[in-house]
Design a protein that fits this description.
The protein is α+β, with helices and mostly antiparallel strands. It has ten helices and twelve strands. The chain folds into three domains: 90 residues, Rossmann fold (3-Layer(aba) Sandwich), CATH 3.40.50.20; 129 residues, ATP-grasp fold, B domain (D-amino Acid Aminotransferase, Chain A, domain 1, 2-Layer Sandwich), CATH 3.30.470; 59 residues, 2-Layer Sandwich (Dna Ligase, domain 1). Helix 1 crosses helix 10. The protein is globular, with a radius of gyration of 19 Å.
Length: 307
Amino acid sequence: MMRPSTIRKVAVMCGGFSKEREISLVSGGAAERALKTKGFDVTMVDVPRDMTALVSTLSAAKPDVVFNALHGRFGEDGCIQGLLDMMQIPYTNSGRLASAVAMDKPMAKRMFAAAGIPVAEERVVTRAEAEQGDVMTRPYVLKPVNEGSSVGVKIVREGDNRPPLDDLGLAADDFIMAERFIPGREVTVAVMGDKPLAVTEITTARGFYDYEAKYAAGGSAHILPAKLDRKLYDKAMQLALDAHRVLGCRGVSRADFRLDGKTFVILEVNTQPGLTPTSLVPEQAAHVGMSFNDLILWMVEHAQCDA
């Protein structure tokens, strides 16, 4: 953790070139406003594909900390974290290894299962295999192996036509994960350092918590705190903390689960949770008495790098 008195200049990295660019810009703008309110000298960095240009921008800005508001590939999969490690610039949230493993859904599931955290049955197949016929008994879910925010997630139910996969931008021999669909309720838990914050239940009329449900106004309803009995509530909190620790996360993460009866099944851990007006982590922070500005301040004060 950095000493607050040594932090003056913060570079907010956002935008980028993943499929979550627009959401990242919203998160980055929110972080910028909070940091300026707290008195920091803020530089906004819209991350380009040109890494030479990015290094030059960061070298000129000389930030004490990078606030990583990137979402999706190249921003939360260990790539940017590795660059910042080499430049010896502390940054918010998880390091390169935890980020890479969390974004690789099949690998993360192996680690969760080894730690006793329930996971859904899955198969990794090529896009061509997924388009040729059912790759497991319906209902099941098709999802990219390394995207966030439910980008490209398709549910295949009884009686459905197989969904088109053209929008995923994958070649025929690229991999995709097929996962057993878990019925029940969707809940999420934010972890901040070594403390789970709260349990939120998410409901949506869209059938599942997809990209539109997450970010469109009115796309979902958040029930906070989730209406669970105390044992189930505490179980969700503990499983989220276990998942955070298993992956080696730091800063803030968010674990998503399905609750089937009395059994939680983990879907994923998000190491770069959104900071938009409809995002879940700021809501949970407010629920435990922490303002948005103080949440952003805490993240900056706990920035690290693996230099």
